[in-house]
Amino acid sequence: MGLGGAFACMRAVEALRPEVVADDPRTAEDDPFRRELPRGYAVSAAAILVSPLLGAGTVRLPWFTGPLGLGVEAAGVGLRFWAMRELHGHYARTLRVVDEQPVVRTGPYRYVRHPGYLGALLICVGAAFSARNVTALALTATAVGTAYEHRMDAEDALLRRDLPGYVDYAATTRRLVPSPR
Fold first, then answer.
1. Gyration radius of the chain's alpha carbons
2. Rounded mean pLDDT of the chain?
3. β-sheet bridge partners, residue 60
């Protein structure tokens, strides 16, 4: 899979998303992320692409991190797809709440509040692992992780404000790392 596979898989998963129950309009909450997420992806892609050229000054990861990275990517694709399907048409590219939207507590949402974002992070980090370079991994985790952290902050604020029941759900379900039950 690697870098090309990571972005191809994310596009394929997006193409398979369920039909959205309402328009996917641009919102004020989305504006900062229309640039930040693509920048994070660009930094990640550049770091992965140039990592073989960095030479002796960088730390190479052991050989097994290549296949491990591909496995992490595949897990990310599966998680993102599962999360998208579980929302039954409420998955959207924009940050918004529509009438009659439920708080989903099934599937991967039983364990984490943002499994789709976790899946995207796993895809990117897996691609960086497959490059077997510490610099690529660090830059990817920082650039993409920071972009998604900011998006989750904005989404959580919006959902706490506009989605009845979300405050209680957020109090019992962690963002990205499942809590022991």
1. 17
2. 85
3. 133
Q: What is the pLDDT of residues 35-44, one digit of tens each?
A: 888 899 999 9
Domain 2-16+29-172 of CATH type 1.10.3710.10: no
137 class by beta-carbon count within 10 Å (0-12 exposed, 13-18 middle, 19+ buried): buried
Assess contact for 135 and 71: CB atoms under 8 A.
no
Domain boundary assignment for the chain = 2-16+29-172
How far, in Å, are 16, 61, 126, 139, 160 from residue 136 at the CA level? Answer: 29, 11, 11, 5, 35
pTM, two decimals, is: 0.85
The distance of Cα 64 from the centroid of its chain, to the nearest Å, equals 24
In order of 26, 60, 103, 153, 164, the CA distances from 167 in angstroms are 24, 43, 10, 14, 8
- Beta-carbon contacts of residue 1 (< 8 Å; ≥ 6 apart): 9, 70, 73, 74, 126, 127, 130
CA geometry: angle at 78 spanning 14 and 89, to 5°? 45
Quote the tokens at residue 171.
């109090």
With beta carbons less than 8 A apart as the criterion, state whether 98 and 90 touch: yes
121 token code pair:
């992070």
Q: Do the beta carbons of residue 126 and residue 64 sit within 8 Å? A: no
